[in-house]
Structure formats: structure tokens, C-alpha cells
Amino acid sequence: MRDKRECPTPPNDGRKRCRPKRNIECRTKVKTGCATCRIRKVKCDENKPFCQKCVSTGRTCDGYESPFRHFTSQPTCVINAYAGRIKSDAGLQPIRPSIIEIAPQDIDLLNRYFSTKTMFDVKLDCDEEARQLLQASLTNPPIRHAVLSLRALREDLETTGDGATSVAQQTASYHYGLQQYGVALRGLVSSLSPPSSNGLKSALLCCQIFISIEQVRKNYAAMAQHIIRGLRIMHEYRARPHFVAANKLVPAHHDQLPFLDVFIIKIFAAPCKFADTPATADVSGTTSSVCPTPPHQQPLESRDLRTIAPDMRTELRRVATLTLDFLGKVSRVESVGTALRLLSEKTALLDSLASWLIDFELVQTEIGHPGPELISVSFLRLFHLILKIVLLGALDSSPDLDAKLRTEDDRLQGIADDVGERVRTYITCSGTSSGQEDRSKMR
């Protein structure tokens, strides 16, 4: 009797009616759909920036490429595996891929995207931070969405320029960037409930991107909030060794947490691109606010008023360099004797900052222009406060430290709020000429 499971073949018919399925481990066919459709294994309509098949079904379209990613010498199946398995679902457990090389050009690009406070062609020396973020974005959904957001917002900025943009003029890339930013924020909140070493690491890495995103959006108040919260995480969870008593040194509570303070110091050490003129007084003696003008349009006398400022910036950068060196020593400290010597070094650095501020105020008095101070001057104040806050928290856990940090945090937030308002005025008044100049610098 014929087994019913066999495929009957009509007499004199040489064709096989049932063919065994091929066990294909890796296909070379390129898949061009969005990541969400590839995960669902459905045909994508490839609409940009959002796949309409995802939008119409209420799903989050996860985009068409991984952030800044170039894979070299990797099989196609490996590439598709990593591109397809990372979802927008914040609750997804991170995957564990083999080591993938991050391309140098991707590191350079993200390094440039970190700050818009600077001239666009300034190298920030954040290669290690960029590499760490890009590697983490392969397996960590919140970080991946944050990087996608920064990329979209920076591409929009470099396309449309740095001028004022109305809501109606905002591009699809800008809206996509905001959407990815929201997904990253929600995913980060989920990963911190409750906090773990991985969650804290994700939070500090995301914080680097969030600070950069808010600079692109010219929202310096929100940028300051990310700085303050990130530094509080480092302090609360003790990313470095610290004293708990006069001569009792304890190691870091969490190993290998990203050093957000180092990243912030690097981006603020770079030159400021904003150059504005002071307010002028009319013939009646009342102060009238003047729209800031781009550097190439400023009269010579307004630039001469700032000839002392570069010296002040140079001195602050010198203190910043010493601070970075000091933080590196704190991270490696193992003995009480070494830590006590570092406390003396910390005191000297704080004294240098105090002296700098006194000299800085004297310079501003000498310039003596009415109205609000220059935006670039306010950025120096922000930089000074960041260095002070970082140094205050290093090696210290005294009972009154939290009160000191809150006071300085409030000052930092106040300056950032003011900077944000005046940067928006600067952008509005500078017009298209400065936007065109910035775009030429970005190319």
C-alpha cells in the first residue's frame, strides 16, 4: 500500500511534484525596505521618510538605514541580521552581536555633529565618545534612536541653514528627527526602571546625544537640563573613586560608566560661532537693543572691544585641559595618599577658576558696553560653571556638597535660559546671509 504522505506521481511524468525546501543560511539579495517591514517580513512601500504601510497601521517606521553605519568585510547576512533585528520597541532586550568595526568616516561625522556652538569645521577630539556611541547603537534601541534623531536634525540644519524657520517650513527630516528623539526619551525612561549598570550607561550615552540634539534645536535651556541631570547621575552613582570620610577612599560604585563630564568639557572648550555686537545708546541716552550681526558685517570698533576676550578664552581652556588630566588621575586612583594629593590639585584648579572669573569681570568692566553681554561671553560663563560643578563633585561626598551643587546648577540653568533667548534673536536678526555663510562652512 502506498504511504499517503508520499507525493503521488502520474505515470510517465518525469516532473517532481514535491521539492524539498532549501536550507539557505545566507541570501545575497539586498533588502531595501524599512527596518520595521523587514522585521515583520512584509513588502515595504519605501516611502520617505516614513513607510506608509507602517504609518497606516499605527506602527513606528524605524527608517531605512542604521545611523552612520558602514560595515566592512562583513557578509550580507550579518549586515541584514543587525539592521533587521533592532526594533523601535523600547522594551526590546538588546541583542549580542559579534564585534563590528565602526568606520572612521562615521566617527568623524558624529564627532562633527556633536556641537553646533562651535565653528562647523572645528574638530572636537571626541573620537572615542563617537566610537562608543556608534558601537552601543547597534544593540541599544534608545541610543540608536537618539543617534538617528541627531543625524536627521543635523542633515536638516545643513540643508536649510541656520536661519529662523517657521513651523510651516520645517522639513520631513526635522519632524523625523523629533519623532526619533521622542522614541529615544521613552525608551530611556523604560531602561531606567529600575536603574542598573546597563541602564545608567545607556542614560549617560544618551545624554551626550541629547545635549547635541538640543544644540541643533537651539534649545539651550533643555541642553542645560540634560547636562545637570547627567552630571547628577555620575555623582549619585559614583562613576569615579571618592572619599566617604577624611581618610577613607572607596572605589567607583559602577564600573565603566561613560564619563559625561569629559565629553561636556570637550564640546565647550571649542570656539563659539556666535559673534554679536553690544547694544548701543541713542542720542537721548536710553539704551536700544541692536540686532546682532555676523562677524564679517561688524564694524571694526566693535571687534576691537573684544581683543582681550581671546586671552580669557585661552586661560579657561588651559584650566579645562588641566581638569581633564585631573579627572583621568581620579579615575585611576587606588591609594589614599595619591587621592589626598589630588585633593590639593583640585583646590588649585578651583582657585584658578575663581581667579579667572575675577579677571573676566574686570575685562567686561573695561569694555563697559551697555545692554546684555555678548552671546560668546555667556558661553564662556557656562563653560566656567561646568568646570566648577565637575570639580566640586570630584572625590567629594561631604554633607554640604549637594547644596553647593544645587546652587551652581541653578546658576547654570539661568545663564542657559538667557543664552537660548538671545541665540534665537541672533538667528532671527542675522538673516539669510549668515545662514549661507554657515552652510559654506559646513561643506
Automatic annotation (TrEMBL):
SUPFAM superfamilies: Zn2/Cys6 DNA-binding domain (SSF57701). Transmembrane segments: none annotated. Residues 33-61 form the Zn(2)-C6 fungal-type domain. Pfam families: Zn_clus. Keywords: DNA-binding, Metal-binding, Nucleus, Transcription, Transcription regulation, Zinc. The keyword Cytoplasm does not apply. The keyword Metal-binding applies. It comes from Lophium mytilinum. GO terms for molecular function: DNA binding; DNA-binding transcription factor activity, RNA polymerase II-specific; zinc ion binding. This is Zn(2)-C6 fungal-type domain-containing protein. It comes from the Eukaryota.
